[in-house]
Amino acid sequence: MYKFKFKLEAVRKLKGMTQKRLAYLSNLSQSHISELETAKQSPTLKTVENLADALKTHPDKLLEVDTNH
Hints:
Layout: H1 2-14, H2 19-26, H3 30-37, H4 45-55, H5 59-63
């Protein structure tokens, strides 16, 4: 999950979104988004899904899942 913090922040910034906006769209608090981006918290699968939906991306883009098996 260490890379998650970097991926979340990178995708959020690529989409031109603030933590506050992402929090609103994903039904999370801004402080929780901040804690995820600083690795003070680890996301649940549901949180990853909510964030991916809000960012209009696939959860594997946030988790760096290798889909080339």
